[in-house]
Amino acid sequence: MATEAAPMDEKAKRMRDLLSSFYAPDPSISTSGSSINASFDNINSTSFDADQYMDLMIKKSNLEVLLQRHVQMAAEIKNLDTDLQMLVYENYNKFISATDTIKRMKSNIFGMEGNMDQLLQKIMSVQSKSDGVNTSLFEKREHIEKLHRTRNLLRKVQFIYDLPARLQKCIKSEAYGDAVRFYTGAMPILKVYGDTSFQDCRRASEEAIEIIIKNLQTKLFSDSESIQARAEAAVLLKQLDVPVDSLKAKLLEKLEQSLDGLQIKPEEASTLVEHDDSSNDTESNDQHPAKIHEDAVRGFSEAIRAYREIFPDSEERLFKLARALTAMHFEHMELYIKKRVSAADFLGIFRIVWEDVVLMDEVLPEAALSDLSAEAAQVTLKQFVARMFSHLQQDISDTLLKFDINQKEAVEGELLKVVLEASQKAVLQGTTNIFQDFRQLLDEKTGIFIKMKDLISGWIQKGSQDFFRSLEAQFLVLSGKTSSSNDIEGKSSDKIHAGLILVLAQLSVFIEQKVIPRVTEEIAASFSGGNSQAFENGPAFIPGELCRVFHAASEKLLQHYIDTRTQKVSVLLRKRFKTPNWVKHKEPREVHMYVDMFLHELEDVGKEVKQVLPQGTFRKHKRTDSNGSNTTTSSRSNTLHNDKMARSNSQRARSQLFETHLAKLFKQKVEIFTKVEFTQESVVTTTVKLCLKSLQEYVRLQTFNRSGFQQIQLDIQFLKAPLKEAVEDEAAIDFLLDEVIVAASERCLDVIPLEPPILDKLIQAKLAKSKEHNHNTVSS
Predict the structure, then answer these.
(1) Element of type H or E holding 641
(2) Which residue range is the domain that position 113 belongs to?
(3) Which residues on adjacent β-strands are paired with residue 156?
(4) Chain segment 372-421, per-residue pLDDT in tens
(5) Quick one: CA dihedral 562, 567, 568, 574, positive or negative?
(6) Which of 436, 480, 624, 709 could be bridged to 748 by S-S, CB 3.0 to 4.6 A?
(7) pLDDT class for 288, splitting at 50, 70, 90?
């Protein structure tokens, strides 16, 4: 047998049986299921037999099980006794509380029957006295009511007699509304007694009403009257049973013509949003254009309300007029924002338009003007955001083009630096200002703006994305890198100054590093989120993509600047090498003038990049830095002196040239063209490399005699020192200069270089001549 305690449900069942047996008058009705399914070993059953249960337990169980069952039954007996005791205590307390409650009820009810009898006697006494008063006053009350009816009748009669005089007074004061009210109020009496007792009054009243009808008809078709006054006249005529249906077409036509006076024209919009803070008197406010417009629209809406009541079958035409006025409002707003408009002015005119829509929507809710206006407002707001970015882009373009960049001012002065700083300020300050205006759109409390807050944020994000992409494309057009359908400021691509290209390249770097991160912070702080509907035609604001776009644009523009400068030098070199007959070239007497022009172009490049680009972190070690010499002449003289000591005659020069050819074969490969950095040194070095490469190619296309080769040798020898001073990669420059000499020797019919003393003498003469020229230029 199991020795575990009975489950909770069995214990609860046993407790219910116990309570049933305690409270039930007949033990046989304790529990329905217990008598049916009871067995002889169920101790809680009413048919339980203790002797059979004990016999069964002794037969089936050993001594240990019997002892455990004894302990278990003893514990159950103890628990049952405790539960029974607690049950008796709880019920006893309830019985005591119920007894106390019954006693209190008896004491409170005691004497209430006598009080109720007294109350009934008093009520009956009051009722009898009230009946006596009503009986005594009945005749007097009837007489008073009869006198009151007579008095009202006399008043009506007096009103009928006074009606003609009242109507004449209303005609003089033009109070036609009161006159119609008086006449329509007297009409029931005049219809009944107008042919007998009040015949004269009726005749005089009708004559006055005819005058009133004529005046109302005159007022109805008067162009000097307001729309609201005409509508009131039409209502009064209809109350007088004057047929106005025949006038419907003419009235509605005049109402339609009045739309011209309600339009907010672009040239008048600014005056509507101006606020005169200095004048607070009512007369000045009544004359304010915004107040005049509001009164006009209110009169128009009241006229629509009146015409709708007068002409119920003209609702569709009235709906059409209201929609036409709303559409014209937003069309004029689109024209208004085509010019430069601040956010405050835009919101001011928008509030006026929206108030007009609300006024007409209250009169014609079935016209669905709010839905029509919501769609038009979305279009207008989206165009305003796009216009703001377009104006900013135009400001940046104007800032870049307003300076007259010519060759002399851009190189000699600091004009490029001024243009760069002004354009950077235009971009940075312009984006700051435009986002301040956009915050005003989000802070606007007009209901339509609150509903479109997410849409506005989305339009601003997409507008920012499109703005930067358009600005990048415009930079490429301004630089002449790409073509445009419209000629920008009348300048073709071949007339664009190279300095402007350099400014655009550095400005692109500034936008990538400064402007786009700042705009990203602005959008994250105030314009995050957005509605997916605003992004259906393009992506939202993606700063990483824009940074990549402007990074690539800056590299394109910088390379375009280098190519432009190199192309100019290439034109110079092409003229130099295609003009003379190199086979019949005379002996060299001096360094050719193209060398001066070449160095002058490189000097211009150095001055331009110094204004726009920063210096590099790496600064090469120059010989002039170590020996303290500040003159180029001494450096060149030392170089020529060393060459003189190394080569003494032409035979040695030939062997030197042969050695150069051999050295070229075994020389370690030099990296010529590296990535261009946004530093002064990198741009100048790359430009020099490309120019020398062009020089080498032009040399390869010619055939030289001995003198022609010697002229090339002299020019290249003179270029070595100034080019090394200008660039940071001397090894590459040495290599390219050697390549030019090698190319000339390969194309020479009789390779005999100049002797070092002659070479040195010609270079010194050129240096002296250049020094004298510079001195004369400074003196003048």
Answers:
(1) helix 632-646
(2) 63-242
(3) none
(4) 877 888 888 888 888 889 999 999 998 888 876 655 555 566 788 888 89
(5) positive
(6) 709
(7) low
| Token pair 């008073």 in the structure block, residue | 144
What H or E segment, with its residue span, contains residue 540?
A: none
**515 with 428: CB under 8 angstroms?**
yes
Cα pseudo-dihedral 628, 634, 639, 643, rounded to 10: -140
Is the pLDDT score of 773 beyond 50?
Answer: yes
Q: Average pLDDT, stretch 701-716?
A: 91
**Model pLDDT for residues 164-190, shown as the tens digit of each residue:** 888 888 888 878 888 888 888 777 777
Q: Which of the four pLDDT bands, split at 50, 70 and 90, describes residue 645?
A: very low
The model carries a pTM of 0.62
Q: How far apart are CA 692 and CA 673, in angstroms?
A: 12
Res 429: pLDDT: 92
Q: Please tell me whether residues 573 and 594 are part of one structural domain.
A: no
Q: Report, as an integer, the average pLDDT of 133-150.
A: 83
Task: Please give the pLDDT value at position 107.
Answer: 77
As a whole number of angstroms, the distance between CA 235 and CA 248 comes to 12
CB 771 within 8 A of CB 658: no
Is the domain of 548 the same as that of 592? Answer: no
Report the chain's terminal Cα–Cα distance, integer Å.
Answer: 133
Q: Coil, strand or helix: which one is 627?
A: helix
Chain centre distance of CA 306: 42
Beta bridge partners of 704: 748
SS (H, E, C) 385-397: HHHHHHHHHHHHH
CB 769 within 8 A of CB 724: no
Residue 97 inside a domain? The answer is yes
Q: Are 167 and 183 in contact (CB under 8 A)?
A: yes
Mark which of 579, 595, 625 sits at the end of a domain.
579
Domain assignment present for 184: yes
Domain end call among 534, 558, 579 = 579
Same domain, residue pair 565 and 587: no
pLDDT at 28: 47
Residue 654 maps to a domain: no
Query: Mean pLDDT throughout 706-723?
Result: 90
Yes or no: say if 713 and 756 are a contact pair by the CB < 8 Å rule: no
pLDDT of residue 283: 43
Query: Do 574 and 586 belong together in one domain?
Result: no
Domain match, 217 and 136 both: yes
Strand, helix or coil for residue 486: coil
Q: Which 3-state string (H, E, C) describes 574-593?
A: HHHHHCCCHHHCCCCCCCCH
Same domain, 511 and 606: no
393 with 354: CB under 8 angstroms? Answer: no
Using CA atoms, how far apart are residues 302 and 183, in angstroms rounded to an integer?
A: 24
Q: Which of 344-348, 371-375, 635-639 has the lowest mean pLDDT?
A: 635-639
Overall number of domains in the chain: 3
The verdict on residue 469 lying in a domain is yes
CB 240 within 8 A of CB 209: yes
Q: Kindly state whether residues 714 and 594 are assigned to the same domain.
A: yes
**15-22 contact pairs (CB < 8 A, 24+):** 15/83, 17/44, 18/80, 18/83, 18/84, 19/87, 22/84, 22/87
Exposure string (b/e) for 249-264, b if CB count within 10 Å is 16 or more?
eebbebbeebeeebeb
- Answer whether 217's CB lies under 8 Å from 237's CB: yes
Predicted confidence (pLDDT) at residue 510 exceeds the cutoff of 90 = yes
Cβ pair 399, 422 in contact under 8 A:
yes
Contact call for residues 684 and 727 (beta carbons, < 8 A): yes
- Cα distances (angstroms) measured from residue 194 to each of 166, 199, 212: 18, 5, 20
- 586 shares a domain with 558: no
The answer to whether the Cα torsion of 450, 453, 459, 463 is positive or negative is positive
pLDDT greater than 80 at residue 5: no
Tokens of 129: 């006295």
pLDDT band at 635 (very low <50, low <70, confident <90, very high): very low
Query: What pLDDT is attached to residue 226?
Result: 66
- In 3D space, the residue among 210, 218, 229 whose CA is nearest the CA of residue 306 turns out to be 229
